[in-house]
Design goal:
The structure holds two protein chains of two kinds. Chain A is an all-beta fold. Chain A is built from no helices and twelve strands. In chain A, the strands form four sheets. In chain A, strands 1-2-10-7-6-3 form a six-stranded antiparallel beta sheet, with no helix packed on it. Chain A has a two-stranded antiparallel ribbon with strand order 4-5. In chain A, strands 8-9 form a two-stranded antiparallel ribbon. Chain A starts with a strand and ends with a strand. Chain B has twelve helices and 15 strands. In chain B, the strands form five sheets. Chain B has a four-stranded antiparallel beta sheet with strand order 11-12-13-14, with helices on both faces. In chain B, helix 2 runs antiparallel to helix 8. The model of chain B has no long low-confidence stretch (mean pLDDT 83). Classes of the chains: A mainly beta, B alpha+beta. The interface between A and B is large, with 44 and 49 residues.
């Protein structure tokens, strides 16, 4: 399953690596990505904190969802994330001036 | 809630301040911190001018006891605000003008090295927290609320308060601080914030004759989208001499030749399905189709989204 909300996407994975470490939610909930210029978040609100777990493993972020939750962002429609394990990805882009590949920043 | 208690009206107010009233409210707060003598009030046209006056004051005044007393003020005024956990609950505010205006002005001050976190502790920007705080058990201190309604940004010190006037212009469009053609926020002394949809931008971006290739130089995707909107897709594509390589649904792959660029530039033009806005992103020059470009953006994952917003 592939869920895309702007520059963030969730991609189904069978399992989350055992070596992954649990990340604590902040007071708002789980922030999957934060816009540097806009201050906007891709956020799973705190009310879903008990049914989601966020992990980090070797720079990759994983999300475990035990009950359908909402992923919200001010500039995009809400995505309902079904039960499952996901890898959280960031869309990338190519800068032809510097010839570098980088994550899309907002 | 009366009209005068509306946080948005308080934060976005552009009517000149009733100075005697604001000074009176400030003095009441000053007394609550424990100072008996009224401070001097120095009025400035903008937060930037307040900062300059504050710096001048530090240079010309024996200010030995200031760090302690300023810390006391900082402690007091921080105590008046809702706890961080309460503020964070209002995620929907993060893009609302009532909240964003404070962030934009702080960013502009930072840009000119006119900011540190101990300054501008109080002001009408605190009105943004009113709703959350009045519902909390502590309630919003009424002296503080009276000050928030009467004044604007200020730097309070034990003997002197530097008080800023309100801006003369605050442009809001579709619930965002926004202007494509000039300052979105302007004070009488010329201190200004330029912003597209609540994102601070360089003043050059508001130039009506902005060159289309400026879009390609902007690193931030949100701003790039706004520049595309400002310039217009048609003018942009014509101005960049873009040659379409492939088209698929709402996606278009464009080859663009920009002088000075070593590699051939390939951009994917797409539409945000949530807002309908067009934006462009650079993709690997080796891709030949829109589908290949979409897959490349995701690091090789096949583009077949179950949900796309």
């Amino acid at each position: 399953m592939l869920l895309v909300q702007g520059d963030v996407f969730l991609h189904s994975v069978d399992t989350i690596p055992e070596s992954a470490t649990l990340l604590k939610p902040n007071p708002t909930g789980h922030v999957l990505a934060e816009g540097e210029a806009t201050g906007h978040y891709h956020l799973i609100p705190k009310r879903f904190a008990t049914v989601t777990k966020l992990y980090e493993d070797h720079g990759k972020i994983y999300l475990a969802v035990f009950r359908a939750v909402e992923l919200i962002h001010p500039e995009h429609a809400t995505v309902v994330v079904p039960i499952g394990n996901y890898e959280v990805g960031r869309v990338r882009e190519f800068d032809p001036f510097t010839e570098e590949i980088r994550r899309v920043e907002d | 809630m009366s009209k005068t208690d509306d946080p948005e009206l308080i934060v976005l107010d552009t009517i000149p301040i009733d100075r005697p009233k604001a000074e009176n409210c400030a003095f009441r707060l000053h007394k609550r911190v424990g100072f008996r003598k009224p401070p001097d009030f120095i009025w400035c046209e903008s937060p930037a001018e307040c900062y300059q006056a504050y710096r001048g004051y530090l240079r010309t005044t024996a200010f030995a006891s200031a760090p302690t007393t300023q810390k006391l003020l900082a402690w007091f005024f921080t105590k008046q605000k809702p706890p961080r956990s309460v503020r964070w609950k209002r995620h929907d505010w993060l893009s609302a003008p009532v909240y964003v205006l404070e962030r934009l002005i702080r960013q502009e001050l930072q840009q000119h090295s006119m900011y540190n976190h101990q300054l501008f502790l109080v002001g009408n920007h605190d009105a943004a927290w009113y709703h959350t705080y009045k519902d909390s058990s502590a309630g919003f201190p009424m002296d503080y609320w009276a000050f928030v309604k009467a004044a604007s940004w200020c730097i309070p010190l034990p003997n002197v308060w530097f008080m800023s006037e309100r801006p003369t212009i605050i442009r809001v469009e579709d619930q965002r601080i926004h202007s494509y053609t000039g300052p979105a926020v302007l004070y009488r002394d010329g201190f200004a914030v330029y912003a597209f949809r609540s994102i601070r931008v360089p003043p050059a971006y508001t130039d009506p004759a902005l060159a289309p290739h400026m879009v390609l130089h902007e690193r931030n995707a949100e701003l790039r989208r706004e520049l595309v909107k400002k310039i217009g897709v048609k003018r942009l594509v014509e101005g960049l001499v873009a040659e379409p390589i492939d088209k698929w649904n709402d996606y278009e792959l464009l080859k663009i030749n920009v002088p000075g660029m070593r590699t051939q530039a390939v951009y994917l033009k797409m539409i945000n399905p949530s807002t309908g806005d067009t934006h462009i992103e650079g993709v690997n020059p080796s891709v030949k189709t829109c589908k290949e470009a979409l897959q490349w953006r995701l690091g090789g994952i096949e583009w077949d989204p179950d949900i796309l917003t």
